[in-house]
Structure of UBN2 domain-containing protein:
Amino acid sequence: MEMQRDVVDVEEITNFWELIESDRRNLSLNVKANNLLHNALSLDEYGRINSYKTAKEVWDCLELTHVGTSKVKNSKIRLLTKEYKAFEMKQGLGKIIPMGELNSKILESVTDDFNNKVYAIEEANNVNEIPTNKLMGNLMATEMVVARIKVRKKANQIKPTFALK
């Protein structure tokens, strides 16, 4: 009786080793992700997820716990949208803010970098009559100039040098 030997193709062996290498890489990535998730969580969260084996299972558990299912997400969206619309209606109440009052509020809210510009605008114009979009345009132009000046100052600062003996 002769034993028959199975002929194994070299290509099959190569594919087999490639699969093993791929599995090893995936396992390594799973271990890293799982380690990261376990180390990043508080003790309470750790107690919730410590029985899961893969990073995907851990992530799914955390997502379900903190975000909820798609039904919960949709309910939250509807609730928040409803609250926003109620707030929006409450704030508006049909009140129209006069242009002068709006302009005054804008000028009061700018930073100290704009004080000189605010003084110039107040001297040159009647704040109650200047269109708000023109006021905003003036302030935006000033903002660009101030930003450019700050960049130049920073670039021109002399760095101290030390002489070593």
The mean pLDDT is 79. The first helix runs from residue 10 to 40. DSSP finds seven helices and no strands in the chain. Residues 99-155 form one domain.
